Amino acid sequence: MTGAQKTRETPVAEQTSTVRVPVGGRAWFVQRRIIGLVVGCVVAMLGLGFVGLSYGTSWATPGEVFGALTGLEPSVVIAEWRAPRVVAGILFGAALGVAGAIFQNLTRNPMGSPDIIGLDAGAYTGALLVMTVFAGASVTVAFGAVAGGLVTAALVYSLSRSNGLSGMRLVVIGIAVNAMVTALNNWLVLRAELEVAMAAVGWNSGSLNGIDWEDLVVPFTVIAVLLTVIGLRASALQQSALGDSIAVSTGVPLERQRLLMVLVGVGCTATVTAVAGPVMFVALAAPQIGRRLAKAPGVPLLPAALTGAVLLQFADLVAQMLLAPVSLPVGVVTTAIGGGYLIWLLAQEVRRR
Amino acid sequence: MTTRLSARDVTLGYGDRVVSTRLTLDVPDGAFTAVVGPNGCGKSTLLRAFVRLLTPDEGAVTLDSRSVSDLPAKGLARELAFLPQDPLAPEGITVRQLVARGRYPHQSLLALWTPDDERAVAEAMVTAEVEDFADRQVAELSGGQRQRVWVAMVLAQDTPYLLLDEPTSFLDITHQYRLLALLSRLRNEGRTVIAVLHDINQACRFADHLVAMKDGRVAAEGAAADVVDAALIKDVFDLPSVIVADPVSGTPMVVPE
């Protein structure tokens, strides 16, 4: 009986869950849930963004915000202080979400995100070394962060590689590497000149405090390029989720694809870290929340980017409001939210074994 | 007998461990080839070399006299489809979505769906008899249903060759025979089927061309009736046996002593 019912329901279910967009004789299939998620996240970003523009030592009225945005009623506070912070939350959140989705796909493990396996900490080490030892400027700091992230990725990868790659082993070794690199970071800060150390500590747990438009030009360009590159390879990334054998036998150049994924994932993580410091747990949580909201198979990129953007934007508002007028580093808030999530995730993993 | 796909003097192995040395095998076009042999004899390794999951240390796998390593990845994937023993179904994927992944080698960068793509997916689901549960999640299905879904995925790849690594493992006897009958039907429709099979009697019944492997080499190959005898089974499987005619199909049937 149930079998017969299933058969009759099938076409209806198919029609309601997917939208077919014809494109010149071909078609592009979009999940209805994805469209809903895009709309929902954009609305959330606009709403949170509006609150972000209004909130500060004194609340701005909606009229003042619109005036500042349209330039009719110029406001340095809104346009030069608050707006870049809102944009940074969206941009960095999306970059972290995508980096998390990339590494969770690579490791085929929901815990295999760059913040957990030490790439944020490694990027921060690179940035610290450039600041303290070489006294570098912001562009060199960014290069240091990318180099630090890549070295850490190579270290974790080589330590966890034996008889092929196991996602779980990579995660466990990554957690250990993360602890060691974090200790190294603390030592670097302690040994640094007082001024550098103060700057570094303010940055230690990830913060969007005091970001201005100039800080965003290079990261925006880099992240836009990286997201475009990986977006074009998104279908190969999804195909790889079917296992190495099927990925290769259906035509994915697996080695090249993996290298590209590591470069883009580390690039996104390091770019954010170079400007805002290691913002933990967005990369861990956003892809999984996005996946569940989109009801999509695997760990898709777009939901991860959208969820990451909303998550970081929301966390940054909380960070500003929680102990106002003192503005907390956003990393403290994401760590508090994400830590609970990580405990739950670990319990799930252990139960599955 | 014509042959497009061959292994020519291939030496196969993983790192220092050599599995096969200078193995040569021609796969007959349009036939059902079954590869049998004891565990660890190199059956799966050979299949993996055909689909370029493993690069021969020496020799080459050739398709139309060209080495497969010279072919573009998607180009080869439009010729050879492969069902491994351990495919992964991403969490939350539906049957239809998984079968559609078989179209990957036919799609361009933007993954736009052509009428061909849509037709191939629909046909593959009908052929493998999975359209009844097309919108259910793969994780909810029984082992037999799930294996048919994977077969539908490789069918949607729409290739002249189908390579399957022990496709009947973990299936009950009914589903084993249904799957083998499906492979025969595909062979009748003109596809070339190459399957590693565990059960020698099933291989004898369904295969046009039987390849018996031992210690990484081909011990015997040909029609089952021509090559299977007690001496071969003793040599390949180290099992004393009596060979009788299968009461249903008349093909050789191995009965252990």
From TrEMBL, chain B:
Gene3D superfamilies: P-loop containing nucleotide triphosphate hydrolases. The keyword Iron applies. SUPFAM superfamilies: P-loop containing nucleoside triphosphate hydrolases. It is found in: Cell membrane. The keyword Chloroplast does not apply. Keywords: ATP-binding, Cell membrane, Ion transport, Iron, Iron transport, Membrane, Nucleotide-binding, Transport. It is a peripheral membrane protein. Residues 5-240 form the ABC transporter domain. GO terms for cellular component: plasma membrane. Pfam families: ABC_tran. GO terms for biological process: iron ion transport. One of its GO terms (molecular function) is ATP hydrolysis activity. InterPro entries: AAA+_ATPase (IPR003593), ABC_transporter-like_ATP-bd (IPR003439), ABC_transporter-like_CS (IPR017871), P-loop_NTPase (IPR027417), Siderophore_ABC-ATPase (IPR051535). PANTHER family: FE(3+) DICITRATE TRANSPORT ATP-BINDING PROTEIN FECE-RELATED, IRON(3+)-HYDROXAMATE IMPORT ATP-BINDING PROTEIN FHUC. This is Iron complex transport system ATP-binding protein.
